[in-house]
Design goal:
Layout lengths: L11 H24 L3 H22 L10 H21 L3 H17 L9
Helix pairs in contact: 1-2, 1-3, 1-4, 3-4
Length: 120
């Protein structure tokens, strides 16, 4: 389904998927801050961890990426990234947040349908 302007409509799962992406960035920043042993390392980790995740996402998972993975490999990569984020949160002491995020984000992206499923 498209809008009158020809753009695909974003359904509930699309909105939830975007919120999961934002949550991933926020959780990595919070976990990075907690993992630092000084203000300098806390700031570096709070900025660096989200930057790495965004770079991975932009390269292989973003809809506009020229190197976007096909659906099957992309779901595996997304799930691996979400589990890794959850693991970082657990190590940082954000156990409930980390586990909840890994489970919820993986489920949302597994259920989400692609409107643009280009191959890599």
């Amino acid at each position: 389904m498209t809008t009158p302007a020809g753009r695909p409509r974003v359904g509930l799962l699309g909105v939830l998927a975007f919120l999961c992406e934002l949550a991933m960035i926020a959780l990595l920043a919070a976990a990075g801050w907690r993992l630092g042993t000084s203000v300098t390392t806390s700031v570096a980790l709070a900025v660096g961890l989200p930057v790495v995740a965004v770079a991975i996402w932009a390269r292989w998972m973003a809809p506009a990426s020229a190197h976007r993975l096909r659906r099957g490999p992309r779901v595996v990569a997304q799930t691996a990234l979400f589990v890794a984020v959850g693991g970082v949160c657990v190590v940082a002491g954000l156990v409930v947040w980390g586990v909840a995020f890994a489970v919820a984000a993986s489920a949302v992206f597994l259920l989400a349908k692609d409107t643009d499923d280009r191959t890599a």
